[in-house]
Amino acid sequence: MAEPFALLLTVYGGDRTDRVREAFRSSVDAQTRRPDQVILVQDGPVPAELAGCLARLTEGSPVPVTFLPLEHNGGLGLALDAGLAASRYDVVARMDADDIAMPHRFATQLPVIERGADLVGAGMLEFGTGRDDIVGSRTPVSDPEHIARYARLHDPFNHPTIVYRRTAVLAAGGYGDMPLMEDYWLFARMIASGAKVVNLPEPLVYYRVGEGAYERRGGLTLLRAELRLQRELRRSGFTTLAQYARNVSVRGGYRLTPTWIRKPLYRRFVAPRGAGERPPVEETSER
Questions:
Q1: What are the two backbone dihedrals, phi and then psi, of residue 149, each rounded to the nearest 5 degrees?
Q2: Is the pLDDT confidence value at 259 over 90?
Q3: H helices, E strands: number in the chain
Q4: In angstroms, rounded to a whole number, what is the distance separating the alpha carbons of residues 252 and 157?
Q5: DSSP secondary structure code for residue 74 in this structure
Q6: Is 70 exceeded by the pLDDT of residue 268?
Q7: What does the alpha-carbon distance between residue 180 and residue 283 come to, in Å, rounded to a whole number?
Q8: Per the CB 3.0–4.6 Å rule, which of 2, 69, 178, 183 could disulfide with 159?
Q9: In percent, how much of the chain has pLDDT > 90?
Q10: What is the pTM of this model?
Q11: Which pLDDT score, from 0 to 100, does residue 41 have?
Q12: Per 3-state DSSP, what percentage of the chain is helix, strand, and coil (rounded to 5)?
């Protein structure tokens, strides 16, 4: 039996109007199975042009929109928690404000949720200047045992593709305040709490790889976020002491690697064209 679901999309002042419009319409108007509610969270003040775009999207949406403007920019995790609280339905799909959903995305993922999964991810195609400029792919690990094992080193899910049950998210404590690492932190806790997780290898989202993408995967700010995440994973018992030491060395080292080295490593080992099953390297809210 088809179950109603909500689409959760957050926007902040740094998002581009044209990309927000395309993300919204691809995940609402163009879907073969549309959401029953859109939760549009405005995370703090936005420029007038973007504010006008959000108003037009809300008014012209073919499905009801719950517009949730937050007074201050508190970060992605807190914005997502606020959006979850506004959902009328237990099933919630995530969408980033500058990616593009394939038309059959929800028609493909929702039946998996309806058969008993708590969290469903999928593959992505990375694109540059347009959808005809495919520069890489991310095929997530799909074997349940592999998901649990890889989660000790990598985020095993492509977060812009996620559909989950709100009850399972709340049972794990919600997103919380873990800047730049909120998705991985949530998914790790969901796995630890026994949530049934599934990955579909099929690409269902076009993921935008813009200028500065490789620079944003490193640096001191991201290193500090990484170290905080690893401390929490260890403190919660999700990782062993040996895994903690490995992660700090491998993942911390990656964050400090110069961009001119990080870019070819990413292209070679993470998102090559036609990549087979491999764990994705997590993105951040700063993309």
A1: -70, -45
A2: no
A3: 10, 9
A4: 20
A5: -
A6: no
A7: 8
A8: 183
A9: 79
A10: 0.90
A11: 98
A12: 40, 20, 40
Name the packing angle between helices 241-256 and 220-235 (round to 10°): 170
**Sign of the four-CA dihedral 39, 179, 49, 207:** negative
N-terminal to C-terminal alpha carbon distance within the chain: 36
Relative orientation angle of helices 220-235 and 182-192, to the nearest 10 degrees: 10
Q: What confidence tens digit (pLDDT) does each residue in 85-111 have?
A: 999 999 999 999 999 999 999 999 999
Residue length, the chain?
287
Q: 10 Å Cβ neighbour count for 75?
A: 19
Longest alpha-carbon distance in the chain: 53
Count CB-CB contacts under 10 A for residue 268. 9
* pLDDT (tens digit per residue) in 105-120: 999 999 999 999 999 9
Write phi, then psi, for 69 (nearest 5 degrees).
-85, 125
Q: Are 11 and 40 a contacting pair, CB within 8 Å?
A: yes
Residues 6+ apart with CB under 8 A from 135: 126, 127, 128, 209, 271, 273
Q: What number is the average pLDDT over the span 200-208?
A: 97
| pLDDT for the residue numbered 271 | 46
Q: Which residues of 208-228 are buried (b: 16+ CB within 10 A; e: fewer)?
A: bbeeebbebbbeeebbebbee
Collect all residues with Cβ–Cβ distance below 8 Å to 247 and sequence separation of at least 6. 152, 153, 230, 233, 239
Residue of 46 and 218 predicted with greater confidence? 46
Q: What is the set of domains in the chain, with CATH numbers?
A: 5-211 (3.90.550.10)
Contact 154, 181 (CB under 8 A): no
Checking DSSP bridges between strand 163-165 and strand 119-127, what pairing results, if any? antiparallel
